[in-house]
Specification:
The protein is built from five helices and 17 strands. Helix 1 packs antiparallel against helix 2. The two termini are about 15 Å apart. A hairpin with an 8-residue loop joins strand 7 and strand 8. It is about 15% helix and about 35% strand. It is of the alpha+beta class and about 300 residues long. Strands 5, 6, 7, 8, 9, 10, 11, 12 and 13 form a nine-stranded mixed β-sheet that branches. It has an eight-stranded mixed β-sheet with strand order 2-3-4-1-14-17-16-15.
Length: about 300
Amino acid sequence: MKAGALRLLRVGRNVADLERARRFYCEALGFVYVDARDDAPPAWTRLPGVSGSPPRAARLRLGAQEIELTAFDPPGAAYPSGSTSADLWFQHCAIVTDDMDAAYARLRRHGGFKVISRNGPQTLPVSSGGVTAFKFRDPDGHPLELIAFPPVTGDPVWQTRGNDPTLGIDHSAISVADADRSVAFYTALGLSQASRQTNRGPEQQRLDDLPDVIVDVVALQPADAHTPHIELLAYRVPSGRASMQTDARDIAADRLVLQMQGLTTLLKTLTDAHAGIVSTAGISGGDGAQTALLRDPDGHWFVLTE
């Protein structure tokens, strides 16, 4: 049995006000609250190195994908002001829509978000994937993206129209300083490189609200389920701010929750090879589940669960 990542189970985000965040994701973006039984603190909050009283949590679903919102009392540091897509703590969720006009209009009707992209949704050239996308921030400052794929592109699951204009989460994109270094780290976790391209031009500049953008985009897939997946954003231009040593309770400390096999073996391999930054790791959970909390070379948080 080869140790490694089987699937990306969900994206975890810390929020200052759980009810406000839940309303935004459900009313503005079409997520559905799973049920009250999912409000128990996530297992990773019981690991060594995560201090404070047990948080409240809410798990939301959009299509077949999930996001988990966690509120600590008191909350950690606020999301850094003036953040851009090139800053190395940047991490967004790409929410697929089959009707960009309807999804964008619903978001604008609800309000409570902050715009990143200039002049509304942008259609990128075919060399950059040909998608139409719009970047913005939720009430806590977390980046999000609405994305619409051209016909017969992207995961085939997105070619089926739904009753709601938003269909699910395609990927979570994270900014990294060195694409090759990060690919090596994620390959050690058991993900594989699915594609690599370089995005540039006026449409990308308007999408990111940044000048003279040149960014390498690398798609990484787990072994069993390719959606949702992880994308690396390595900005050659402009240079973003360096990684922060965020606390696990901070608002910017997003987490990607990966379902693994052979977790104990993998952790030993990573530690022995110094393949990544393992800030906190351990075994927790009364149900016998193994859970580890890691950081990648750029400081992004991961929860690995068996």
